[in-house]
Design brief:
The protein is α+β, with helices and mostly antiparallel strands. The protein has two domains: 77 residues, RimP-like superfamily, N-terminal (GMP Synthetase, Chain A, domain 3, 2-Layer Sandwich); 61 residues, Roll (SH3 type barrels). Helices cover 27% and strands 40% of the residues. It has three helices and eight strands, in the order H-E-E-H-E-H-E-E-E-E-E. The strands form two sheets. A five-stranded antiparallel beta sheet has the order 7-6-5-4-8. A hairpin with a 2-residue loop joins strand 1 and strand 2. The chain is globular, with a radius of gyration of 17 Å. The two termini are 33 Å apart.
């Protein structure tokens, strides 16, 4: 998480929580020539378009007032989704015992994409189906939703 993402999170988290949502993640990234500030929210009952609109309307003015982002950007508010990116310590800890997919920078046991049950997490590595993977080697990770249980 970048310094900017942390500052934005500290600014908007209390507002989002006062509205009855939890803040799942904040991502600021450049795509092509455009910059995006993406804020992912969650609540037990799920997120709908009206929830995203309410959060957007509640944080836009304070983001403009603080002016952390000097260049033009697009603000996107959305659900964390069924298959969620794992970027933070708490994301991994919440998903111990669940199926995840990990994309690696360097192959482990001949694979650069590994999916399985997350057995353990600490700040240095995870264990996925008895395979030890260094945190530094993880390019991305996400939960795997079991569509067959629907």
């Amino acid at each position: 998480m970048t310094t900017l993402e942390k500052k934005v999170e500290e600014l908007v988290k209390p507002i989002i929580e006062n509205l009855g949502y939890s803040l799942y993640d904040v991502i600021y990234q450049k795509e092509g020539k455009d910059n995006y500030l993406r804020i992912f929210i969650d609540k037990k009952e799920g997120i709908c378009l009206n929830d995203c609109e309410l959060v957007n309307n509640s944080i836009t003015d304070i983001l403009d007032e603080k002016d952390y982002i000097k260049s033009q950007y697009y603000l996107e508010i959305s659900s964390a989704g069924l298959e969620r990116n794992l970027r933070r310590e708490e994301h991994y800890k919440e998903n111990i015992g669940k199926k995840i997919e990990v994309h690696l920078y360097k192959a482990v046991e001949g694979k650069k994409i590994i999916d399985g049950t997350l057995e353990e997490y600490n700040k240095k590595y995870i264990i996925l189906d008895n395979i030890k993977i260094d945190i530094e080697n993880i390019a991305s990770a996400k939960t795997i939703y079991n569509w067959e249980e629907e």
